[in-house]
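Contributing new records

If you add data, match the layout below exactly. Sequence lines come first and carry their own label; structure lines follow with theirs. Keep one chain per record. Anything else will be rejected by the validation script.
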Amino acid sequence: MEWVSLILLLALLQFTAFGIMVGRARGKYGISAPATTGNEIFERTFRVHYNTLEKLVVFVPALWIFGYYIGQYWAAAVGVVYLLGRTWYAISYIRDPQSRGLGSLLTELALLVLVVGGISGIAIQLLN
């Protein structure tokens, strides 16, 4: 499960990088903690970070379960799609929230494949 572990750690690094972006935006736009509003670009950056946290709640266990029951290489491949989707989402959402569609779609498709694949893998094991 080395590949699954690597993808998982990359997802956590990505989340950390998004958090650093929030901190930088706080400084750049003069938004003191605990405020989460006050500048549109800061708010977009904050939303990217928070939305990624919401997705990680599904991604982490789904990636692990998919990797265990279906295979680590397939899980890693889908995980790369998730990471690319999150990156695209972040760049496009901060630039123009209306352009976030592709990044959001890639993220959701990856999550759907991981969850449905994980359920399928478990079902196959239970039926055997």
